[in-house]
Amino acid sequence: MGSWKIESAKSSGFCFGVESAVKTAYSILEKYPGRKIYMLGEITHNETVVGDLLSSGMILVHEPGEVDEGSVVLIRAHGVTPQVMEELSSRNCEIIDCTCPFVKKIHTIVNKAGKEGHPVYITGTKGHPEVVGICGESTHPVTVISSLEECQALPNIESDSVWVSQTTFSSKVFQEICEFVQKKIANDQIFGTICYTTENRQRETADLAELSDVMIVIGSKTSSNTKKLYDICSDRCALTYLVGGAEEVLPLLPMWRERKVKRIGVTAGASTPVSIIREVIQTMSENGVNTNPESNDINFGDYIESIPQLRKNATVKGAITTCDSDFVYVDVHDKSEGKIPRSEFEPDFDFEAAVEEHKEIEVYVKSIRNTDMGKEIILSKSHVDFSKNKAEIEAAYENKTPVTVKITNVVKDGVIASYGGVDIYIHRTQLELNVVNDLEAYKGKT
Ligand code: SF4
Q1: Looking at residues 303-327, what average pLDDT do you find?
Q2: What mean pLDDT value characterizes the chain?
Q3: pLDDT tens for each residue of 143-172
Q4: Residue closest to 378 by CA, chosen among 345, 332, 322
Q5: Which atom of ligand 1 is nearest to the CA of 197?
Q6: Least confident of 57-61, 97-101, 102-106, 314-318
Q7: What number of other Cβ atoms are within 10 A of residue 272's Cβ?
Q8: Phi and psi for 45 in degrees, rounded to 5?
Q9: How far away, in angstroms, is 19 Cα from ligand 1 center?
Q10: Does 134 sit in the ligand 1 pocket, CB within 6 Å?
Q11: Ligand 1 geometric centre to CA of 262 (Å)
Q12: How far does CA 148 lie from the centroid of its chain?
């Protein structure tokens, strides 16, 4: 029996972009029973997730020309070129666009750069679907660079150029390339477009790898961000393994015991479902339980307990990541995102801008439950707004200061006014200096 401590990088597993795309995939299967639904490219680089969707009825294709006229087509988080979008539209397809907002932001930058005639450079993996989609946005040729060496070997870097990065590119290499470019040319515009979930994941993974005897990177060998994590770990920990699931870990256990491994670090790519991460950790934990009570080792139960958890009824801060017609999704630093009914936002709330800038908001955790598709976290914005606004109203009452309210309803002998969701009753004798008879005329006024 081995004896090891297992630690997991906090940001392991599905990122919000992939999680949102996978959720959408299941929801459209439910929404369009009997219709042909295609995913254009694998929705995530994970065989288990893709396999489950295929067995649920989704059809995998790789080219827009392969889909039937008038069918439903899901665009994955990597995004596609505008030309692909046009082809699908010309085939009268219903396009369900799950392009991650971080990727969309790069499309916008490159599209604008192309229109303004700037040469565009992308740091990323040539041929990666996300990079292909980004390149398609520019009307001018785009140069893709995968390493500092490649950048240094360029015969000429054009001035007045625009630089972006694939969202999952190594932040360290991107920084090195930027420093090199800034010394060489003037008038360049460099956009840091590596997504923050990738940066956090890479940083936490690097820290963990420094301290570990063994590093396990869980994910698919075809996943770009998983491979980056593997590279980061290999640079810092000699015993680094990229595994697809628990079955690949089992044969390694005897060697770890022989080498008296004490600390095992675990990280996972953005396309790895939490169920696979749990399975891998459970396998290592069950085979490495130390019977010595003096030991610091943990078992699977302890590990799961140690995953940072949101508490029900807590008020926390989160960043708006995406939204659909029913919900607004918020990253609340948990393994899963939380969602707020869209109806809780003011009618003039700018959802597009909030997603674009990952607007931070305070939310109340209404409920947390486990479902077949993972953890479901229901949040409320109006609950927080209500508490704040109520406190403001009370303070205004104490200090005898006026507040602006909107009259929303007429009731017996008065009206109901709203202050950010807090209802206030105003008697007809308090509306004006004289008694008001026509209360209806006040409805909608502030
Ligand atoms: S890794 Fe980042 S950019 Fe890519 S899908 Fe996930 S959140 Fe979006």
Answers
A1: 72
A2: 86
A3: 999 999 999 999 888 888 999 999 989 888
A4: 332
A5: 2
A6: 314-318
A7: 30
A8: -80, 60
A9: 9
A10: no
A11: 33
A12: 28
Substitution site in 12, 14, 15, 335 for ligand 1 pocket (most atoms within 8 Å of beta carbon): 15
Write down the pLDDT at residue 295: 35
Q: Which of 18, 22, 170 to mutate to test the pocket of ligand 1 (most atoms within 8 A of CB)?
A: 18
> Per residue in 386-437, pLDDT tens?
888 887 888 788 778 888 888 888 888 888 988 877 888 888 888 887 777 7
pLDDT exceeds 80 at position 354: yes
> Is residue 2 very low, low, confident or very high in pLDDT (cuts 50, 70, 90)?
low
How far does the centroid of ligand 1 lie from the alpha carbon of residue 305, in Å?
A: 27
Among 11, 12, 16, say which to mutate for ligand 1: greatest number of ligand atoms within 8 Å of CB.
16
Banded model confidence at residue 290, pLDDT cuts 50, 70, 90:
very low
Q: How far is the CA of 197 from the centre of ligand 1 (A)?
A: 7
* Whether residue 20 has its Cβ less than 6 Å from ligand 1: no
Cβ–ligand 1 distance for 270 under 6 Å, the answer yes
| The pair of three-digit structure tokens given for residue 197, joined into one six-digit string | 């979930």
Ligand 1 center from residue 135 Cα (angstroms): 18
Q: Looking at residue 208, what is its pLDDT?
A: 93
Residue 302 has pLDDT above 50, yes or no: no
* Domains of the chain, start order: 16-99 (3.40.50.11270), 102-194 (3.40.1010.20), 199-291 (3.40.1010.20), 315-384 (2.40.50.140), 404-446 (no CATH)
Indicate if 116 belongs to the active site: no
Q: Whose CA is nearest to atom 7 of ligand 1?
A: 17
